């Protein structure tokens, strides 16, 4: 009976479920912008590994925690330099601005070794953290919330990193229902790079982690009520930022120049996001339903 009622509802009534999730719509590396493939659509050339569903990854041991839902190799590689800004523009399931506003953003990198990252299997990669972003101010809004206006999240490639082939992985952890175990929502995305320069910075062996493997569903930053005690210090899951990265980037904010965070970068102005959105307006976007709705709506 319930299924019959749901099936009788207009599809438009189901759209908020889709919009609440999302994907990495575009990335700007230095001065070059690359548009991501729509989840589960026919792929085109890009540097962003394509996922097949806008739903979050659930569970800290989920294999898709690596690069996203069934992430596929991307065909292209972005040229980058130490110190370049990488601007990640996340969108919701309707290609509008990101909607979640509570939870951290973290960025990792892994070396693809001597091979191009376009053919690198990241499932057994060793990752090191280069950035973590929490609240803008103690007890205040999260840096993630700045993306609700369409602004990108800016991350700086370490200025002393050794040249080579790398994947840079940006991760959003939405905590709005993280009060119960398994409630945290993970949104990882992977971008393929080739970094130049003459740096020598590399992580130490004890700073490398597996993904999945670095988190537990009961970690204090994953099983947490961020609303009952907003003044409590947030404990970032995973390793600390690699020691060689320290001091390589600065915090910026579109909403408050004096804002402080426990991170190395904050989402900034929406100009880069606006430019990338214009490039995507003519792209046909198939509707991607959440897994719950797929069980209710005929395909």
UniProtKB/TrEMBL annotation:
InterPro entries assigned: AA9, AA9_LPMO
UniProt region (Disordered), positions on chain: 254-284
EC number(s) given by UniProt: 1.14.99.56
Cellular compartments annotated: Secreted
Pfam families listed in its UniProt record: AA9
Auxiliary Activity family 9 catalytic domain location: 21-231
Cofactor: Cu(2+)
Annotated TM spans: none
Superkingdom as given in the UniProt entry: Eukaryota
Bias type Low complexity, positions: 254-276
GO molecular function, one term: hydrolase activity
Chief place of localization: secreted
Signal sequence bounds: 1-20
Recorded catalytic activity of this chain's protein: [(1->4)-beta-D-glucosyl]n+m + reduced acceptor + O2 = 4-dehydro-beta-D-glucosyl-[(1->4)-beta-D-glucosyl]n-1 + [(1->4)-beta-D-glucosyl]m + acceptor + H2O
Keyword field: Carbohydrate metabolism, Cellulose degradation, Copper, Disulfide bond, Hydrolase, Metal-binding, Monooxygenase, Oxidoreductase, Polysaccharide degradation, Secreted, Signal
Transit peptide listed as a keyword: no
Family named by the database record: Belongs to the polysaccharide monooxygenase AA9 family.
PANTHER family: ENDO-BETA-1,4-GLUCANASE D (PTHR33353:SF10), PUTATIVE (AFU_ORTHOLOGUE AFUA_1G12560)-RELATED (PTHR33353)
The protein's name: lytic cellulose monooxygenase (C4-dehydrogenating)
């Amino acid at each position: 009976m319930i299924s019959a009622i749901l099936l009788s509802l207009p599809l438009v009534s189901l759209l908020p479920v889709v919009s609440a999730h999302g994907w990495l719509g575009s990335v700007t590396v230095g001065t070059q912008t690359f548009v991501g493939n729509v989840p589960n659509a026919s792929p085109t050339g890009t540097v962003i590994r394509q996922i097949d569903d806008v739903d979050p990854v659930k569970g800290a041991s989920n294999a898709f925690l690596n690069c996203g839902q069934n992430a596929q190799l991307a065909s292209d590689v972005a040229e980058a330099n130490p110190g370049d800004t990488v601007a990640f523009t996340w969108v919701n399931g309707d290609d509008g601005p990101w909607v979640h506003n509570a939870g951290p953003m973290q960025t990792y990198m892994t070396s693809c070794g001597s091979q191009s990252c376009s053919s690198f299997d990241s499932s057994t990669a060793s990752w090191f953290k280069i950035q973590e972003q929490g609240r803008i101010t103690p007890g205040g809004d999260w840096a993630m919330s700045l993306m609700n206006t369409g602004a990108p999240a800016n991350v700086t490639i370490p200025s002393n990193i050794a040249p080579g082939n790398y994947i840079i992985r940006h991760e959003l952890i939405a905590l709005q229902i993280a009060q119960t175990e398994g409630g945290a929502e993970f949104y990882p995305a992977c971008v393929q790079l080739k970094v130049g320069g003459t740096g020598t910075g590399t992580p130490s062996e004890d700073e490398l982690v597996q993904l999945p493997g670095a988190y537990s569903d009961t970690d204090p930053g994953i099983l947490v009520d961020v609303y009952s005690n907003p003044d409590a210090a947030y404990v970032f899951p995973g390793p600390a930022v690699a020691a060689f990265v320290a001091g390589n980037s600065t915090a910026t904010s579109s909403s408050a120049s004096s804002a402080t965070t426990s991170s190395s970068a904050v989402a900034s102005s929406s100009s880069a996001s606006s430019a990338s959105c214009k490039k995507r307006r003519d792209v046909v976007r198939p509707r991607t339903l959440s897994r719950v709705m797929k069980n209710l709506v005929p395909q």
